[in-house]
Amino acid sequence: MSFSLLNFLELLGALGFFIYGMKVMSEGIQKVAGSKMRSILSVMTSNRFLGVFTGFLITGLLQSSSATTVMVVSFVNAGLLTLVESVGVVMGANIGTTITAWLISIFGFKVKIAAVALPIIAIGFPLMFSNRGNLKSWAEVIIGFALLFLGLNALKESVPDLRQNPEILEFLSGYANMGMLSLLTFIAVGTILTLVVQSSSAAMALTLVMCNEGWIPFEMAAAMVLGENIGTTITANLAAMIGNVHAKRAARAHFIFNVFGVVWMFFIFRFFLSGIDSFMLSNYGVSPLNRDDFTSIPIALSLFHTSFNIINVLLLIGFTPIIAKVAERMVPSRGDVDEETKLEYIGGGILATPELSILEAKKEIKKFGKIADRMFGFVGELIENKDRKTFEEAMNRIQKYEDITDKMEIEIADYLTRVAQGELSEELSVRIRSMISMINDLERIGDICYQMSKSIERKNDQNVTFSSAQNEGLSRIFKNINDAFETMTNNINEGFGQVNIRQAELNELTINETRDKLRSEHLMRVSKSEHSFESGLFYSDLFMSCEKIGDHIFNINEAVVGLK
After folding, report:
1. What is the DSSP string of 456-524?
2. C-alpha distance across the termini of the chain, in Å
3. CB 71 within 8 A of CB 356
4. How far is residue 411's CA from residue 346's CA, in Å, rounded to a whole number?
5. Which of 93, 240, 254, 522 could be 55's S-S partner, Cβ–Cβ 3.0 to 4.6 Å?
């Protein structure tokens, strides 16, 4: 038998065909049900068993555990899932990915879906020209499904018929009789194969095809499946590389779970295969260990894959908190992230769907709002601070925060701009515009706080002091601003369009009334010469700046509601 370079390229092309079909279908489903999957993941994870079911359901829909785990990493990155909740979802994803194997085993080898693939594409093709984004996404799902099975058919035809070439089986048999070393070898092969194709489903499909054509025996294929369980964790870890510490921990938890499963299976591998063989003999009358009959191997391999993952989940679901703690130790905290200029929740590589990307940006804006609030608090401390050294440290801190707000505005705006370049509904477009308005106002608050700090510094340098009445007036308007910040933070947490703006309007009205009273009182005291002209200039500058901050806070509230 000859297997030329051209044959190898055909095999590689067929694998690419299969992966591309799976990618098109997966992305289409994410677009069709992106917001629904977001709701499922954010609601159905409080209980670890519900988390497992959620992971199973999402992976069953997407036909890709890698897509689910990358999505989970993204949700952890955005703060929508805790680490413990994410472990349960990943466990369910491992079970959900076995559905692909069953679809291929039951339909791919017995039902000629490839024969109806072109008519399926004919149904989906007109939908691609629809003006409705949802119909275009359904077209991707339909066409992707057809391409997936066309790719599977191409894979079957590209793999040489090794039943007529026993010398190849003899060659492989040499690697199958080395005991534990043989098992480790094929676990490594499965891991490398999954790393190369970046999809456990594609690697599983290739393994099933090789078994069905008699390329490799059942034992080797089962060992490769174990390796594929390790290889699939790499995708999530790659996605988490540019994520925050929480995303990295979620990816490590996935790795820990899968590797532990392979470890315990390694020691009982022969006994487990004997159990699968007994089940197949009693129910189907065929043995997957019989190298003269390959017809039972796809079903037996799917059974092995499913039973292994279910048992692994049952063994480890009670240890979810421990897995989370081990992941935390593997990826220690980098300290106070608020002191970092790097964005905490969004990164350059995780742009899964517009809905998810906007959620991540919202989380970052919430952090931005807290930084602005904290910066204003530092200004209040400056007024009360009399110690020179402590005052200088506070000034340096405000300068650092001002730099942070400038960088955050640029980075979040750049991220939202990249999201806006995709296909968006009108609602999502409005939300992005509102978010850009919010970060502009937050950055302006940072600028005003910095200007106030410089004004206080000049006051101290000129040995100007405030009277008790001036200090009391500043305390009143500072309290008004703090109340407004609290309302703003609550509104950002509530979400776009779900806020009653009445409280924000009351805060804005109170700030304006306080500003007017302070100005009136100030002019009266100046006329009576109750305080110096210099202190009056600094005093009026500070309370007027507070009123400007109040205006920007109200603008942010309007943007959250969707009015700005």
Report:
1. HHHHHHTT----HHHHHHHHHHHHHHHHHHHHHHHHHHH-TT---THHHHHHHHHHHHHHHHHHHHHHH
2. 71
3. yes
4. 9
5. 93
pLDDT in tens, 118-141: 888 888 888 888 777 677 778 887
DSSP 296: T
* Type of residue at 459: K
Amino acid at 305: H
The pLDDT, as a whole number, for residue 329 is: 86
CA atoms of 438 and 167, how far apart (whole Å): 69
* Alpha carbon 450 to its chain's center: 34
Which one is predicted more confidently, 202 or 9? 9
| 12: Cα separation from own chain's centroid | 30
Q: How many C-beta atoms lie closer than 10 Å to residue 145's C-beta?
A: 22
Q: Which of 145, 297, 116, 321 is nearest to 210 (CA)?
A: 297
User: To 10 degrees, the CA torsion angle through 279, 282, 286, 291?
Assistant: 50
Both tokens assigned to 209: 């095809």
CATH of 354-561, one of 3.40.50.2300, 1.20.58.220, 1.20.1640.10, 2.40.128.110: 1.20.58.220
Task: Output b/e per residue, 32-71; b: 16+ Cβ within 10 A.
Answer: bbbbebbebbbebbeebebbbbbbbbbbbbbbbbbbbbbb
pTM to 2 decimals?
Answer: 0.53
Query: Do residues 544 and 451 make contact, with C-beta atoms less than 8 angstroms apart?
Result: no
d(CA 159, CA 168): 13
pLDDT in tens, 481-495: 999 999 998 888 876
Sign of CA dihedral 20, 26, 32, 38: negative
Distance in angstroms (rounded) separating the CA atoms of residues 449 and 381: 12
Could you give the CA distance from residue 516 to residue 551 in angstroms, rounded to a whole number?
14
C-alpha pair distances (Å), 76 with each of 108, 155, 249, 270, 550:
35, 36, 9, 38, 33
Pair 227, 182: CB distance under 8 Å: no
Q: How far is CA 359 from CA 236, 255, 308, 415, in A?
A: 19, 26, 35, 12
Residue range(s) occupied by CATH 1.20.58.220 in the chain: 354-561
DSSP 104: I
Alpha-carbon gap, residue 313 to 193, rounded angstroms: 24
